[in-house]
Amino acid sequence: MRFCSQTRSLKRPMDSNYLLVVTTTDNRRDADILAQALVEKRLAACAQIEGPITSTYWWQGKLENGEEWKCSFKTSVAHYTELETELTQIHPYDTPEILVFPIINGSKEYLSWMDEQLR
Question: For 17-117, CATH number?
Fold first, then answer.
């Protein structure tokens, strides 16, 4: 019940200018390259790398299990198209996972900081 009461107190649910974009890669070096490139170009205010994680998935008709690193990028709706284009170009996978989640709320100070970084 605690989650439900917190959700009702959100000021602007679903009216978001900010996004969390997630992808994975099969090694830390590539994750670092993606993070550096997107933050350096100011397409992401921040990149976070987690891993290793284990992924299980179908690829080319075969069930695969692999070690991956998850990369999360905090960006704005205005920067998303360019971020996706750049991510697709530099990502080592043929078909990279690119998932987008709206950031429905956050501290005013942090969101202002994101705006400053995404110029």
Answer: 3.30.70.120
| CA 18/CA 93 separation, integer angstroms | 26
CA–CA gap between residue 35 and residue 49 (Å, rounded)? 8
Are 23 and 34 contacting, i.e. CB atoms less than 8 angstroms apart?
Answer: yes
24 is written with which tokens? 């994975």
Domain positions in the chain are 17-117
Strand order in the sheet with 18-25: 46-59, 62-76, 18-25, 99-103
Give the H/E segment covering residue 70. strand 62-76
H/E run at residue 46: strand 46-59
| Model pTM above 0.90 | no
Radius of gyration, alpha carbons of the chain? 16
Residue tagged 């009702």 (tokens): 8
- For 60, the token pair is 């080319």
Q: What is the pLDDT of residues 50-77, one digit of tens each?
A: 999 999 999 999 999 999 999 999 999 9
